Amino acid sequence: MTHRGPDDHGCYVCGNIGLGFRRLSIIDLVGGHQPMSDGQDQVWTVFNGEIYNFRELRAELESLGNDFKTCSDTEVIIHGYKQWGEDVLNRINGMFGLAIWDEREKKLVLSRDAMGIKPVYYKTTKESLYFGSEVRAILAATCEKPEADPVAVNMFLRYRYTPSPLTIYKGIYKLAAGTLLIADEGGVKLKRWYRHSPISFAPMKTDGQAVDELLDIYKRAVARHLVSDVPVGLLLSGGIDSGLLLGLMSLHGANWPTFTVGYGNDFRDDELVDAADTASHYSCGHSQVQITGRQFEEALPTVVRFLEEPVASSSIVPMYFVSRLAREQVKVALIGQGPDELFGGYKRHLGVRYGEVWRSLPGWLRNVLRMSANALPRNETLKRGLYSLDVTDRLARYQAVFSLLPAGRVDGLFKDGLIQPGVGDKVLDYWSELSDLMKATDELGGLQFVELRSSLPDELLIYGDKLSMAHGLEVRVPYLDKEIVEYVERLSASFKIRYAVQKWLHRRVCRKYMPAYILRRKKRGFAVNVVDQWFQKSISEKFDSYLKDSESLMYNMLQPAAVQALLKEHKSGSNDNYKILFSLIVLEEWLRTFMG
């Protein structure tokens, strides 16, 4: 895992415990060597990530008599654990994948941060527990040939990611966001340590009060996320989310380095001109990389290799290129991920926000409208949306929102007898423990509560981590600061989507730092149209061949005729299948890389 930590490495082995670490030095470049102990060899830790409130925690711990030897945020974990036990996790505001070895109790604690920004993988056998920030560490330790889990493959094809605790590797798991694993002489157990539950709604407030409060919270979060002993930059899109970050960063200095990736004039989804204009508005340095469709295609195998488990977001390749660009100048970069999930920025949020209006219509009218929508060519988002709004059970309704295809259509891609029908519904078992925590949320808030604990960490954040750390770049996500998330989760839907205006409160804050012409820019689904145009125009012979070649590795599990029917539908224009088709291509790349 040298790419994750090119600056330093260390090991601690004693009896039955072995800890290894590759370090990307960010805080206390000299004193932050890991594995790190309390000086008495009673508690050891290895920790990937950042603790943004470590200075406040250190001051509190020192007042309680704890003696610090370094200026590292890592040491706060050790003394915090000795002082508060596992509850130290609830006091931390940061991102982390960590392991704590308690020599006194012969106990190992693994944990993933509240928002799941950093991954933790593990594998158990009768006698051993293996863990790491990446799957490759476990594969190297066990020396076993990896196997694909058909159930996980089914889930991946349904959702574009594999929900925690599953991975696509049989027998290898990942901790869900906000959970921990304890291993001791009694065995292994899992539990959720982050149990934030929105209290109905925040006290009533005026719009102006909400804007001022959120702005203050944003300012504090950005200030925390800028703490670093190495240069910091920003991955800048042409939109308002990263633009606001740049405005708030500018309160702490000028000429922050910014980085953007785009496709030039070849495709509709391009950020280059808008991002350069935003950087110029704040007088910041700006660098950009432009990639072609051919480069996208040629880079995909490398991207999938660093991802380790398939994620079929069409932004994975641009993320790889912009991270490589940023690493030429900085070790840390902020990114504007989060407001879409927090404030309802996607099309699915509009449907959920006003779903009650749909369900209040007479049944005959809903049937007529649904049949009319199904008769339209393409428009798969609308078709899926109308279907999901009619699902009675709340969690099942949310599941339908996230599904690329109906369960029966995904199951029908598999060879007979390989899976049990409906295995993709197993995600509801993983979400069930969230039901009590989200009881007080409204319909939109409930979807977002699940989204922040499932699709966000296991899709967008996991590829953000893997593809930035592929270049030794640490990406930080200020909008997912715990203070921000917990504040927004107490807001009613009217502060998120009002009169069909999405991200309403967030946009009101943006007004204070951004000119109106930036706020008026059209939201771009980056790289979506690139992939869609490839399939529609048949310009990628390589990707076409993956789907048409009966010798492709995916056909050890899938039926060629069923897959090729999806491709035929898409190219004829009758259905918009680019998401599932791109998922199949990423799956084939993964099989060739790890199973071939």
Helix/strand layout:
Layout: E1 8-14, E2 17-23, E3 36-37, E4 43-51, H1 54-63, H2 74-84, H3 88-91, E5 94-102, E6 107-112, E7 121-124, E8 129-132, H4 135-142, H5 150-159, E9 173-174, E10 179-184, E11 187-192, H6 207-225, E12 232-235, H7 240-249, E13 258-262, H8 272-281, E14 286-290, H9 293-307, H10 316-327, E15 332-335, H11 339-343, H12 347-353, H13 355-359, H14 363-375, H15 380-389, H16 394-402, H17 407-411, H18 427-431, H19 443-453, H20 455-469, E16 474-476, H21 482-488, E17 497-498, E18 501-502, H22 504-510, H23 516-519, H24 528-537, H25 541-548, H26 560-572, H27 578-595
Parallel strand pairs: 12-13, 12-15, 13-14, 15-16
Antiparallel strand pairs: 1-2, 3-4, 4-5, 5-6, 6-10, 7-8, 7-9, 10-11, 17-18
Helix pairs in contact: 1-2, 5-27, 6-21, 6-22, 9-10, 9-27, 10-20, 12-15, 15-16, 19-20, 26-27
Note down, in words, how this protein is organized.
With 596 residues, the chain is α+β, with helices and mostly antiparallel strands. Among the domains are: 8-192, Glutamine Phosphoribosylpyrophosphate, subunit 1, domain 1 (4-Layer Sandwich), CATH 3.60.20; 207-343 and 450-519, Rossmann fold, CATH 3.40.50. Helices cover 44% and strands 15% of the residues. The chain has 27 helices and 18 strands. The strands form 5 sheets. A 6-stranded antiparallel beta sheet has the order 3-4-5-6-10-11, covered by helices on one side. It has a 5-stranded parallel beta sheet with strand order 14-13-12-15-16, with helices on both faces. The longest helix is centred in the middle third of the chain and has 19 residues, at 207-225. It is globular, with a radius of gyration of 24 Å. The two termini are 22 Å apart. The relative contact order is 0.12.
